[in-house]
Design brief:
One of its GO terms (cellular component) is cytosol. With 124 residues, the chain is an alpha+beta fold. Helices cover 23% and strands 35% of the residues. Helix 1 packs antiparallel against helix 2 (68-82).
Length: 124
């Protein structure tokens, strides 16, 4: 199992979600975060004075996939969707995950991250 984390421009969040959906990636967590990379934010004028805006709004994606092939597909989809060519496009990180547990069923490892059938709810 591999965890892919991507930090991208907030305005590219929907494009990245669509790209991941298009390759059938499920189990996505998205957080709105603040941060800066090598560009160190930007300057903004407030009441005539320059003010450094060091922390910029970003979207952070967290995805766990079953193997190296899925990790490559996931990273490629994110990079294509998030790319603008300007500083601040973001970063993608991936690293191995040793174990996972699906809380609802107790399934472990690969079974914990594969789509599980939803419980049947009987209508009255």
């Amino acid at each position: 199992m591999i965890k892919v984390e991507a930090i991208v421009r907030e305005e590219r969040m929907e494009d990245v979600k669509d790209a991941l959906r298009a390759i059938d990636v499920r189990g996505i967590t998205v957080s709105q975060v603040m941060g800066c990379g090598t560009q160190l934010g930007y300057t903004h004028r407030v009441r005539g004075s320059k003010v450094a805006m060091n922390m910029l709004p970003k979207a952070k994606f967290e995805i766990v996939v079953s193997n190296e092939d899925w990790a490559e597909k996931t990273v490629d989809a994110i990079v294509r969707a998030a790319y603008t060519g300007e500083p601040g496009d973001g970063k993608v990180f991936w690293y191995p995950i040793d174990h996972a547990v699906r809380i609802r069923t107790g399934e472990k490892d690969i079974e914990a991250i594969t789509p599980a059938p939803l419980p049947v709810v009987e209508e009255e």
